């Protein structure tokens, strides 16, 4: 990779040694153009067809000055073959990486729509500021050798038994109290856990990839934002395995990009804020795809209103004032 | 992004207008260092600690000249927090993107271990040359409105019913012949399919992301390689939903990077070959994690032998001779 236009190391040192410098450039990563275009209008940004990126990539960039901030909105654009927005983690991580390298922003904001969990207090139209992100579909901890009779439902001829994530977490964290485990067999259970499960647990933690968003206590207080954790996966639906990990992630909202944006941003040492607006209730009784389409316009309007308030709040402030 | 060191457009034109130019540079993307290091020795490559990549990324590069080829082996390296290899699609796509931008190779080879399906003829130790790649854990096509009684098992008070992918594909492709659908209700089925399923089907095809590897008929014939399709997902295990999509992908081998490497390579217009060695049988009776560890050393040796043969074959040849 050719050296980036700015000297990252120097700029980081500057930022750290002069904490009072106001935030001057904000990079938005927004997966769907439907979500981005009202903000492009609001901030009066112009589409850029420059050569920041390799020829042929579908990525879209809109930029301009809003108040004292240089704002860039980046979208992954439309898939060349299918014409749909390039949603998902691979595309979001590539776009984040390439645009941070090219533009060296002070701050990334990943804004977009998401599913919400009613059980955690989410309603359609809520906009969440995210405190933590993690993945829910990168599993390493799902296999355990079966001992006939030790767990309920494991009798039979199969030598191995596949358990779901919640059960493995339960075994790891609460095995001594689990009433379904025969206490006489606990030494055998623990031996299995140490030989098979523990080495995989480290990989599983890597897979889950839990990361914190930039803490912004004043922003939350001032704008009275709802705060929740975000879980990211590459599917619109949710399997029982996804649900178990989402539960372990303690997530209130579920999207398809956040944790991947966080991964790429951490690699390049740029702080991220996430704003996620709820289009559908995952633990409700309507299918996600249908509910999404019905609510999209109204929820995008709510998201854009919240984003504008956040940008107005950030304008002129230092990181320590957020 | 700053312009890449080479002029991509010019080099592509050169390549197309002079098809007889031999392949001169090969970039390996290899997820695990255990898989890569024997090849580093074999090709007598040297670890490079240069500044091709942004400061702080864990990516490893080994490079050197082997016969007439410039060879670079790239590994995503160890996760800073957990010390495990940065396996998976996000990391693989970022590494592919950044290293292609920096090194402008003629050809990418993604080599590594994989799970194999006995039902498709795979055995432990087999090395497959991959014809096609696709994802199996990026689903958009799993939700359909329930009509009581139209599908078996859908009676009851719930207004919506979640179907698995194989069932949706069946409905889309073979509904007229599906004996489980009441033929009198077919018009209603088709109406549901068109209003709910079809729009999601395009997104689902984007998610599946099926792509062809570079066709290499002479290589396959000369080295008598087994050829099969590869399916990629971010989990070590396989859920029933994964299994349904893997079946639809007609995959013989299953890994955690291939389709993501293909996505990034296609963005930057570089052809890819995939070599995948089978460490464990997914549809066998041993758990993947355990079987993987038992067979790893022997299978990596088989992979490295195959990779060496492939590189020896490529040396001095043009693309049209592969």
Question: How would you sum up this structure, described in words?
Answer:
Two copies of one chain form a homodimer. The first copy, chain A, has 322 residues and is an alpha/beta fold. Chain A has helices at 8-17, 33-42, 89-103, 165-174, 186-208, 217-223, 240-248, 258-267, 288-314, and strands at residues 25-29, 46-48, 60-66, 69-75, 107-116, 127-135, 143-145, 160-162, 211-212, 226-232, 253-255, 272-281. Chain A has nine helices and twelve strands. In chain A, helix 2 (33-42) runs parallel beside helix 9 and helix 3 runs parallel beside helix 8 (258-267). The model of chain A is unreliable at 1-18 and 142-179 (pLDDT under 50). The interface between A and B is large, with 70 and 71 residues.
Overall geometry of chain A comes to: globular
Q: What's the N-to-C terminus distance of chain A?
A: 33 Å
Number of helices of chain A: 9
CA radius of gyration of chain A: 22 Å
Largest interface (CB within 8 Å) is between:
A-B, 70 and 71 residues
Q: Can you give the helix content of chain A as a percent range?
A: 25-40%
Mean pLDDT of chain A: 81
Structural class of chain A: alpha/beta
**Total strand segments of chain A:** 12
User: Low-confidence spans of chain A: pLDDT under 50, at least 5 residues?
Assistant: 1-18, 142-179
Oligomeric form: homodimer
What does the main sheet of chain A amount to?
Answer: 5 strands, mixed, barrel
- Strand order across the largest sheet of chain A: 5-11-10-6-12
List the helices and strands of chain A in order.
Answer: HEHEEEHEEEEHHEHEHEHEH
Strand content of chain A: 15-25%
């Amino acid at each position: 990779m050719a050296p980036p236009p700015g000297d990252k190391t120097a700029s980081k040192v500057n930022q750290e040694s002069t904490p009072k410098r106001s935030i001057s450039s904000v990079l938005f990563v927004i997966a769907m153009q439907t979500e981005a275009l009202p903000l492009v209008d609001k901030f009066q940004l112009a589409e850029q067809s420059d050569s920041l990126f390799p020829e042929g990539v579908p990525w879209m960039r809109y930029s301009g000055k809003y108040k004292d901030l240089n704002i860039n909105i980046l979208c992954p654009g439309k898939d060349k073959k299918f014409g749909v927005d390039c949603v998902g983690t691979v595309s979001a991580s590539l776009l984040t990486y390439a645009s941070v390298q090219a533009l060296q922003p002070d701050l990334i904001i990943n804004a977009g729509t998401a599913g919400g969990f009613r059980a955690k207090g989410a309603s359609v139209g809520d906009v969440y500021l995210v405190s933590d992100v993690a993945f829910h579909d990168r599993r390493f901890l799902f296999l355990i050798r079966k001992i006939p009779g030790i767990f309920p439902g494991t009798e039979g001829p199969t030598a191995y038994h596949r358990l779901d994530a919640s059960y493995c977490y339960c075994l790891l964290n609460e095995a001594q109290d689990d009433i379904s485990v025969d206490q006489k067999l606990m030494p055998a259970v623990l031996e299995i856990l140490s030989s098979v499960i523990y080495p995989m647990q480290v990989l599983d933690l890597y897979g889950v990839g839990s990361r914190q968003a930039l803490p912004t206590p004043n922003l939350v207080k001032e704008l009275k934002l709802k705060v929740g954790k975000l879980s990211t996966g590459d599917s619109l639906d949710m399997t029982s395995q996804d649900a178990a990990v989402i539960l372990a992630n303690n997530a209130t909202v579920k999207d398809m990009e956040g944790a991947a944006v966080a991964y790429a941003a951490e690699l390049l040492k740029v702080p991220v804020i996430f704003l996620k607006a709820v289009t559908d209730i995952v633990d409700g009784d309507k299918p996600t795809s249908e509910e999404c389409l019905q609510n999209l316009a109204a929820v995008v309007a709510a998201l854009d209103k919240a984003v504008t308030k956040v940008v107005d709040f950030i304008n002129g402030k230092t990181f320590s004032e957020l």
